[in-house]
Specification:
Elements lengths: L2 H8 L3 H9 L7 E3 L2 E3 L4 H13 L4 H8 L9 H33 L6 H8 L3 H10 L1
Antiparallel strand pairs: 1-2
């Protein structure tokens, strides 16, 4: 399969395919008449890479998963190990997002008279609370 056809079928630019190849996510294709010719399994790999990227996996994590992947090797144990690590990251992102949501909801109700007062009310730093107690 030519690079343009692979890219179109996967919904990517050809430059993304070349980048995946450069990063070691895709095996170097054969060249026929100076053109890249990807193996039939390249589309499955590219779609998997795209899906994993959309789900927040880094290219390094994806390469770790794909290294040594063959049709006769179960993917379950590899995915479980990667999923366990990623789950911790997702939980941290959820906590951070909930904190941001709360902050933004508070800012929508904000009637502070100054930035200093607003920062103080947000308790952005334990040191600010100490300073505000001393200044009173």
């Amino acid at each position: 399969m030519k690079i343009g056809q692979l890219a179109r079928t996967a919904g990517l630019n050809a430059s993304a395919i070349r980048y995946y190849e450069k990063r070691g996510l895709l095996a170097p294709p054969q060249r026929l008449g100076g053109q890249r010719r990807f193996a039939s399994d390249a589309l499955s790999r590219v779609l998997l890479i795209r899906f994993a990227t959309d789900m927040g996996f880094t290219l390094t994590e994806i390469r770790l998963f794909l290294n040594g992947l063959r049709d006769n090797i179960p993917v379950g144990p590899r995915w479980k190990k990667l999923a366990a690590r990623k789950l911790v990251e997702v939980e941290q992102n959820i906590a951070r997002s909930l904190k941001l949501k709360s902050l933004l909801q508070g800012l929508l109700r904000c009637h502070c008279t100054s930035l200093e007062f607003c920062v103080s009310r947000l308790s952005l730093s334990p040191h600010l609370r100490v300073l505000s107690r001393r200044c009173k």
